[in-house]
Write a structure and sequence with these properties.
Helix 1 packs across helix 2 and helix 4 packs parallel to helix 5. The protein is elongated and about 70 Å long. The chain contains 12 helices and 18 strands. With 374 residues, it is α/β, with parallel strands linked by helices. The longest helix is centred in the middle third of the chain and has 24 residues. The chain has 2 domains: 128 residues, D-serine dehydratase-like domain (Lyase, Ornithine Decarboxylase, Chain A, domain 1, Beta Barrel), CATH 2.40.37.20; 224 residues, TIM Barrel, CATH 3.20.20.10. The chain has an 8-stranded parallel sheet with strand order 3-10-9-8-7-6-5-4. Strands 11-12-15-14-13-16 form a 6-stranded antiparallel β-barrel. 32% of the residues lie in helices and 24% in strands.
Length: 374
């Protein structure tokens, strides 16, 4: 083991104890609600975190890129849902992974997809599980749960001999607009109820629905029951972040990801310090404004993880600006001082780095590869 002070900056830090706690809690929660957990590994892209999730009772994983799918498949994860609508440029890769023995399921909301996708699967001699993506209120992707395209698309999938209708799938991304448990619960109930009603609509039209899949970290943390839902695809919960704290999904003590940065400039006249962690290290996601209306790029902690009451208020590519009003604290943060930035959006920040430095307190206990790319 070694100390954080020996690291070059910026470095991506992950608190192993918090990750283990977060993962165990979500696994127990979803199991207790009678559903299975298929975590979205785009948050961490780490085999080690995936194994912790497997130990906590997950069933399969969700990915956002084929690179993630390949990396996890190479390490024994063979039940994968690729949760970005499929397009023809990826048909061959999906077919090849299925031919290699990986159940790589795909999603679509377009009635023109099943024909050519089914043909690609036929040529590869495989059957591809295919979900219908449903819009449960986020309005990013998905068919209208009450419109005719839902049944038409499900039928078109079912008619292809080399496709298998896997069920209906949704993501309540609009849960990130909620503030507090009451608003989160309202979105969670709506997500569940829209999807259960959509499944009933399909069944009444003569299309049995094998499974109903939903998922976001806020709704998974806030939902009161999951009757009619088979699986949940939350992902951010492994790390949590400042955005989840602001929404009300967790507390700051649950946040497992931070960026170690060094002070490279101090300006007593302006009351600022500059960190060597900018947009490339933190991402430029400004998150959600604090109660005082200020948006920022992360909370500043000391190396031991104590909140200094500071925020990174602006970024350039390699520089982060922190305003410091307390003279004693400004003196303390001289050039070379180390701080930790508790990040706004752990998924985006993690994707900026090739590896995690795994910590317990201030002790380094390992390193995990981040399997990035498309």
């Amino acid at each position: 083991m070694s100390d954080l002070g020996a690291l070059t900056t910026p470095s991506l830090l992950v608190d192993r104890t918090r990750v283990e706690r977060n993962v165990a809690r979500m696994g127990a929660r979803i199991a207790g609600l009678g559903a299975t957990l298929r975590p979205h590994v785009k948050t961490h892209k780490s085999i080690e975190v995936g194994r912790l999730q497997a130990a906590a009772g997950m069933r399969g994983i969700t990915v956002s890129t084929l690179a993630e799918a390949r990396a996890f498949a190479a390490h024994g994860f063979d039940d994968i849902t690729y949760a970005v609508p499929i397009e023809r440029g990826k048909f061959e890769a999906v077919a090849q992974m299925n031919a290699a023995g990986v159940r790589l399921a795909v999603i679509t909301d377009d009635v023109t997809v099943p024909g050519p996708l089914g043909e690609a699967a036929r040529q590869a001699g495989v059957t591809v599980d295919t979900w219908v993506k449903v819009d449960c209120g986020y309005h990013r992707c998905g068919v209208d749960p009450e419109g005719p395209s839902l049944a038409e698309l499900a039928r078109r999938i079912g008619e292809r001999t080399h496709l298998r209708f896997a069920g209906i799938l949704a993501h309540a991304g609009h849960s990130y607009q909620a503030r507090g448990p009451t608003e989160i619960l309202a979105v969670a109930r709506s997500e569940r109820d829209v999807m259960v009603a959509a499944a009933a609509h399909l069944a009444s039209a003569g299309v049995p629905v094998p499974a109903v899949s939903i998922g976001s970290t806020p709704t998974a943390m806030g939902v009161d029951h999951l009757t009619g839902v088979h699986e949940v695809r939350a992902g951010n919960y492994a790390f949590f972040d400042v955005m989840q704290v602001t929404i009300g999904s967790c507390t700051a003590d649950d946040c497992a990801l931070s960026v170690l940065a060094a002070v490279v400039h101090r300006d007593p006249k302006r009351g600022t310090v500059i960190l060597d962690a900018g947009g490339i290290a933190l991402s430029k996601d400004a998150g959600i404004a604090d109660a005082d209306g200020v948006t920022h790029y992360g909370r500043v902690l000391d190396v031991e993880g104590r909140d200094l009451g500071l925020r990174v208020t602006s970024l350039s590519q390699e520089h982060g600006v922190v305003h410091v009003r307390d003279d004693a604290l400004l003196t303390r943060l001289g050039v070379g001082a180390r701080v930790r930035v508790l990040v706004n959006h752990s998924c985006l920040t993690a994707a900026q780095h090739a590896e995690y430095v795994v910590c317990e307190g201030t002790a380094i206990v390992g390193r995990w590869v981040n399997h990035r790319g498309w």
